[in-house]
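Record type: monomer structure entry
Structure origin: computed from sequence
Chain ID: A
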Amino acid sequence: MSLMQFRLTLSFHNSSMVDLPFFPPAFISIIGKLSTSKKFHWLASCFFGIITCKLVYKITGFISLFCFKGYRKLSNKEKVEWNNRGFSTFHALISSLASLYLLLFSNLFYEDSSDELIVNRTSIISNTILGFSIGYFLSDLTMIFWHFPALGGLEYVLHHGLSVFSIFLSLISSQGQIYILMVLFSESTTPFVNLRWYLDVAGQKSSTIYVYNGIALFFGWLIARIFLFIYFFAHMLNHFDQVKKIFPLGFYSLLTVPPLLALMNVVWFWKILKGLIKTFSKARHRQ
């Protein structure tokens, strides 16, 4: 293929994304227009996410065996969750740092950095992190179903299911990635959630680090899952003329999925607040 043919093909892809018909014809149309290399990149990123989860799961168990004396005393159920939270933390760090870089430190989503609509902007890094995250959520969902309900109830199934659905639509359409990355940044609270569980299982609920982690979780959740979602909706409202140009299924999912996730975040935030108050109360009584 010549350079001119490649540019014409790329131009055709970018211009046709805005006028996609409703699903499922939109889905079929998008898939049909994708280049083989792009599909391979997505599949490779997703597969890499799955393999990484498997490796980190094994590595977490191996390291814990030598670095944490109490690991041997854990039940098989607790060991599974212990290792599961290991790759959960790893994904949270990778996805949140990548999202922070793309949203704030790269010029990908700066208003005047490109003539392209902000809802249509993508990059190799953004596509990779979305594919990687799909791999993670699929891996975690598989474990949740396999050990149900030990690793989480229906609320986790709903959260992960909505996440996979939204990320997949954004990835195959190359639209709305700025909003997906905002939501992925909220994963930055996951390490604090997991550390709280680790300390609880290790019998460290009365330790100072448990209290400090609870405080960090409270403020982290407030910023990344409450304030950020307020900014999310404000940004979407200010750019609604562009949001309306997203293909129909993507547009309507953008109007419904984030509010559901935001509601879940508020419910979990209330539980975190009650837990923090309870922890402070116990600490005060011990004094």
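Annotation 1: The two ends are 75 Å apart (CA to CA).
Annotation 2: The mean pLDDT is 89.
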